[in-house]
Amino acid sequence: MASAERIVCVLCGKGHITRQKRDVAFRQWSDKGYIHCRVTIPIDICDHCHANYSLDPGIDKIFDDAFQREYDKR
Question: How far apart, in Å, are the Cα atoms of 19 and each of 22, 39, 41, 52?
């Protein structure tokens, strides 16, 4: 099994990029008022300068699903 290559941060040139899960709280306006939501998303972060990188294309669906779930509860 080959070891994974470590990607160097393009901003600082010193750190390496790692995939982490982050909790995100957000609110979105709707016809029922503000809907408050929480999601956990995967995000790439530099371990030196802490820059956030490339959100996956499927992130929008995670946010949309969380909003719809909380909206339906009201």
Answer: 10, 16, 10, 10
Amino acid at 74: R
**Do the Cβ atoms of 25 and 35 come closer than 8 Å?**
no
Domain ranges of the chain: 20-73
Looking at the chain, the number of H-run helices and the number of E-run strands are 1, 3
Which pTM does this prediction carry?
Answer: 0.73
Residue 22 to residue 28: CA distance in whole angstroms: 19
Question: How much is the pLDDT for 2?
Answer: 45
pLDDT at 20 over 70: yes
